[in-house]
Amino acid sequence: MINYHRKYILIFLSIILIAGGCATYYKKTLKFQEFILNGELEKAKKYLDKNDKDKTNKNKLLYYMYSGWVSWMMDMNKESNSAFAKADNIIEDQKKNYGLEALSLISNPSVKPYKPEDFEIVLINYFKALNYLNTGQYNEALVECRKINIKLNQLNDKYKEHKNRYSDDAFAHVIMGLIYDANKEYNDAFIAYRNAVEVYEKSYLKNFNIKIPEQLKWDLLRAAYRTGFYEELHEFEKKFNLKYEHKSGRGGELVFIWQNGLVPVKSEWSINFTKIDGEGGMVIFANNDMGIAFPFYIGDKSDDEKSAFAELSFLRVAFPKYLERKPVFKSAEISANNNKYPLYLAEDINSIAFKTLHDRMLREMANSLLRLATKKAMETAVRNENQDAGAAIGIINALTEKADTRNWQTLPYEIYYTRIFLPEGENTVELNTKAVNSSETQSFVFNIKRGKTYFQVFQSLESMPLPDRH
Q: Can you give the pLDDT at residue 300?
C-alpha cells in the first residue's frame, strides 16, 4: 500500500512540473509583451523565432496567432496570412486527446493544447481579411468576413445551455459592406449594412452597450440611394432621423479603421462551492453568492467513491478571469483638407472577451467541479489508508488547482472606423488620438484616384498598466 501511495505522489509531482508552476501566461511571456507595448516589432518577431519550440508543443496555436499578428503589424501580409492559415488549420484539426483529458481531470486544463476563446477563433479571419484588403484582394477578404459569422453560428450551435451572447459579429457585416461598396456592388453593400444594423440593435446594444455607429447609418443610406431602393432610403431616414443628400465629386474615398489598445489578459480567481446532500443518490454543489448550483448523480459509484464524496463539505474551483488593460487614448478623429471627422466605435473586443468568458464559465463549471471532486475523492480514499500519503496528495491537489491563463494578448481593445471623401491627387491625412491630458498625431499620405476606395488600418498599442497582481 505504501508503494501504491508513493506511485500516486510521484504522478502528482510530475503533474506539477507539467502544469508549469503558478505563474500566469502573461508573466511567462512578459518579455514578448514588453516588446509589443514598446512598439519594438522586430524584437518581438525575433523573440518568436528564437522560441520556436512553441511550434510543436501545447502552445503552437498561440505561436501562430502571435506570428500572424506581428507580421500583419509589419505589413508582411503574405507571411501573416500564412501563419494565420496554420492557426486556422490547428483549430480545425483539434481533437480530444483522451490521455490529456484524463490528465487534466486530476491536474488542470493548462496541460492540454491551448483551446482558444470563440472570439479569438473568428478574429483570425478578421486579420486575414485585413491582409487581403491591404493587397487589394477584395474577394478573398469577403470570404474571410463571411467565415466569421459562419464560425460563430457553428460554435454556438454546439452549446445546449448558456449560449454565447457573442453569436453574430456586427463589424464583420460592416467590413463586408465596405468591401462591396469599394467594388461598386451597392446591392450587396446595402444588405451587409442592413444586417449590421440589425445586429447592433438586437445584440450589441444589449450585450456590449454599443450603438449603431453613425458612419454605418450614412453608409446604409448612401447604398440604398445608389441601388435605387428609395422606399428603403426613406424608411431608414425616418428611423435614423437623418436626411441623405447625394454628393458627387472628382475624387475617391478613404475608409480609416483605428484599433485602440489591447485586450485584457487572463489571471485566475477561486469560486467556493458548498456540498448539499440530495435525495436518490444526488449531491449538489452550490454557490449562493453567484446563484448557481450543479447537481451530480453518485448513486452508480462504488462504496469507496460514495464514502469519499460523503466526506466532502466544500470545493474551491480555480477559473480564469480577465484583467482589463484600459487604453491610454479615449477617442480619435481624422483631419484632412482643413476638415475634421470623428471615428465611431464599431467593436468592443474587451467587452466581448469578458462576456464570452462568463458564458463559458457557466457551461464548463460542472466539468471543473467534477475534476475537483475526483481529486478530492482520491485524496480521501488514500487518506483513509495512510494519513501521511493522503495529506501529501491534499497538498499536491491544492498546488495543481490552477486556471488556464493563456490567451491571445495582442488583439485590440476596441475598433473604430470612419469614411471620408478626398479629392484626386496627393492628400495628407492625420490621425489625432486623444488621451486625458495629451494627444498624438500620425500622418498618412494617399495618392487618390477618382472613384477608388482606399483602406487604412492603424493600431494604437498604448495601454494602462495592469494591476500589481497578474
A: 78
